[in-house]
Amino acid sequence: MSFLVTKNNKTFKLKDIPSLDINTFRDQIIKECKNNKRIVSFFCEKLEKFVILYAILASDEESKLYISSTLFKNEKSYPSITQEIQSFHLFEREFYEETGILPENHPFLKPVRYSKDRFDQNQKIEDYPFFKIEGKSIHEVGVGPVHAGIIEPGHFRFNCHGENIDHLEIQLGYQHRNIEKLFIQNQSSFYNLMILAESIAGDSTIANGLAFTHSIEALTNTNISRKSQSIRGIALELERSAMHIGDLSAICGDVAFLFGNSVFGAIRTLVINTLLKICGNRFGKGLLRVGGVNYDIDTNLNQEIKKTLNKVSKDVAGIADIMFSSPSVCERLEKTGIVDFDTAKKIGLVGMAGRASGINYDVRYNHPFGIYNYYPLYVLKLEGGDVFARSYIRYMEIMHSINFILEQLDSFPDYDLMTKEVGSIAKDSMVVSMVEGFRGEIVHSVITDNKGNICRYKIKDPSFNNWFGLAMAVRDNEISDFPLCNKSFNLSYCGFDL
Amino acid sequence: MLNFFKVRINHGSQAIKDIKKATVNDMHRGFPVVDEAFCLEKCEDCINCCPTGAISKSPLSLDIGKCVFCGECERLCKNKAIQFTNYHKISTTDRQNLIINKKLSYDDFNNNSIKIRKDIIKIFKRSLKIRQVSCGGCNACEMELNACSNVNFDMGRFGIDIVASPRHSDCILITGPITENMADALEDTYQCSPNPKIVILAGSCAISGGMFAKSNAINREFLAKYKIDLYIPGCPVHPLTVINGILGLLGR
Question: Which of A385, A414, B56, B198 is the least crowded, having the fewest Cβ atoms under 10 Å away?
Fold first, then answer.
């Protein structure tokens, strides 16, 4: 057996993961990826004398995960997988940055985030090796790390020909806080880690929090109550709709449709204030805990949320109708920043951006977790791959989420427990936990040692897959359309930089 | 067209009319009331549970510059020695004011929290242009700062705006724990901003490092070098805390 076959949120022993030699490991991965499997996570664990490299592939139709590993003792290089399967390119760059083991013939071997524990401490973030382009009427535009609005830091370098973008290079790492290491340092209590997980990316507080709680609950073999699952599902969908509404507001702002900007902005306030009413924080911080949730939804609040969401649903439909039928808006959105299906598949787009390009994949459907085991959702997708598709799919998902929440509130169990006792962590084990955040698939992989301590915590944000999608989307577009393309992806800097 | 008017009328006027008197939902965790008298002997539950070590004993005090407002201490305390209220005006000009203990009621805090400075009022009272620099953190504070300018909170009506370039700014507003990779860019931005200028820290991460205080990838030398004029606590900061704090600093 070359792979251990498992599922989302299922604990397994480390010794059950096959350890292959690097060539077989590589060949098997390439074979499986050509056979309709997809890369989910690819990360290393650095030990004193050697490095273990784990690869996690997903078969979405079967709802299964395929896990394999290989060991590096003295080897300093291996033939890169990226040559054959392009979606590995960032994963292999990350592996190289952390260990110094060279993926040979990697076409794009550049620094990823200048992490604190990088092998080459001489590399400095100000010396990033950008592509250079020369010739008549060629020019470069550099933006960042401090941007014009209130957004996170990152550097964009445009190689332009006139107004046309030939290439966009995205350099990140400014938000790097070494959060994965903090997960190892802070593990005196689950609660500390819970708050840390909520701080990975504030816009995906609930999604990251859920990935964390699911992984710990799997490792401690805790089954949480139906009521807690329902509240968690409601919170996740509230977060998704709030972020999508905020994004639509910003997209309207970018095309100077200020009416939409204001109306969507006001609706978003309603949604995040609903989260505030549930748990005392507009982003849902403090709601989740290992074993359940901290806050209940009583009958009054239930009615109140229903009333608010019915209004939100009506208001969103009203303004979206105006937005998507306005010629001046559609003119800017349609055929702008196209990522076609083949490119999306090749670079491994996930989440809402992937679904806008026709990729039929949603963690909630393909690898269900929590409440979605009992209330399955169907996958929404569009074909266009342009800014319009990425905007319209947001509108569809908002409506879908609100209906889901209303359904949950109607069948809300009043009797159940909120939290359950949690046991101790399984030793020498591993769990992979996937959650569909509003951007897409968030993956937390946790490895424990022989004392039951966490010895590796790996986070993969959907932005890790999708940043390259943005670079592809803006090619051959006007430079003035960049903000629009950027907003239509709305990727996370802190989720990427960790 | 008819549809357009329908949505416009339904939208109405969204702005909070009196920003100083506005209140937040009761569930919001704002100013904490700390009373040692309720403490059980030898109980250190709150100190042990706090993920940022914001609580200390004798006298029992809670440092809201470190606090992430998760509410775990309040949940664990059987005697309610720590209780969060929904008072949101918790900005201050002095770091020491953020350490809340028994002697301090909300009114006391509010009366002394913002020391009005003539040099600031003289120049910035009617308009303040802010350059925000995001230095790590989780992006929640950034979203709340964006919300300050939306139709509900509408900070622009007070002449307070976020500007695109440090060259146009009177104020550097920092969020996040200041990562090593961002330290130089922050220094550059500060230097690019014309004098006189003020510096504001927003969020627990910026004030104390928050959840990332122990990270080895942060570099907080900047804060030792320059004077900080306003601290806005919160995790993330609430828009009303931000706007009222800045208005207070400007003497309005």
Answer: A414
Mean of pLDDT values over A248-274? 92
Would B174 be classed as within a structural domain? yes
Please report which helix (H) or strand (E) contains residue B33, including its range: strand B32-34
Domain containing residue B136: CATH number: 3.40.50.12280
Bond before B196 cis per omega within 30 degrees: yes
Alpha-carbon distance A359 to nearest alpha carbon in chain B (angstroms): 28
How many beta-carbon contacts under 8 Å exist across A and B? 185
Alpha helices (runs of H) in A35-168, residue ranges in sequence order: 89-99
Residue B48: which pLDDT band, with cuts at 50, 70 and 90? confident
Asked whether residue B218 is assigned to any structural domain, the reply reads yes
Confidence band of A66 (pLDDT split at 50, 70, 90): very high
Within-domain flag for B214: yes
Q: Containing domain of residue B161, as a range?
A: 118-249
Q: Are strands A441-448 and A164-171 parallel, antiparallel or unpaired?
A: unpaired
> What does the alpha-carbon distance between residue A478 and residue A50 come to, in Å, rounded to a whole number?
48
Average pLDDT over chain A, rounded to whole? 90
Say yes or no for a CB contact (<8 Å) between B179 and A175. yes
DSSP A108: T
Dihedral of the CA atoms A415, A421, A425, A426 (nearest 10)?
Answer: -60
Sketch out chain A's domains with CATH numbers.
4-112 (3.30.460.80), 186-459 (1.10.645.10)
Q: Which residues contact A466 (CB under 8 A, 6 or more apart)?
A: A349, A350, A351, A353, A354, A439, A440, A489, A491
SS3 A165: strand
Distance (Å) from the alpha carbon of B147 to chain A's nearest alpha carbon:
8
**How many Cα atoms sit within 13 Å of A436 on the Cβ side?**
27
Longest alpha-carbon distance in chain A: 73
Pair of tokens at residue A243: 């972020």
Measured between alpha carbons, how far is B39 from B80 in angstroms, rounded to an integer? 8
**B143 belongs to a structural domain:** yes
Whether residues B182 and A175 touch (CB distance < 8 A) is answered with: yes
Model pLDDT, residue A189: 85
CA distance A400 to chain B (A): 21
Report CB contact under 8 Å: B25, A153. no
Position A466 scores a pLDDT of: 92
The residue in chain B having the minimum alpha-carbon distance to the alpha carbon of residue A189 is B49
CA distance A109 to A102: 9
Q: Are residues A265 and B150, on separate chains, in Cβ contact within 8 Å?
A: yes
Closest chain B CA to residue A172: B181
ipTM summary value: 0.91
CB distance B208 to B66 below 8 Å? yes
pLDDT category, B145, cuts 50, 70, 90?
very high
Domain count, chain B: 1
Please, are residues A485 and A474 in contact by the beta-carbon 8 Å criterion? Answer: yes
Residues of B in contact with A181 (CB under 8 A): 215-216
Least confident of A331-335, A444-448, B9-13: B9-13
Query: Is the CB of B150 less than 8 angstroms away from the CB of A205?
Result: no
Chain B residues lying within 8 Å of A153, measured CB to CB:
133-135, 182, 185
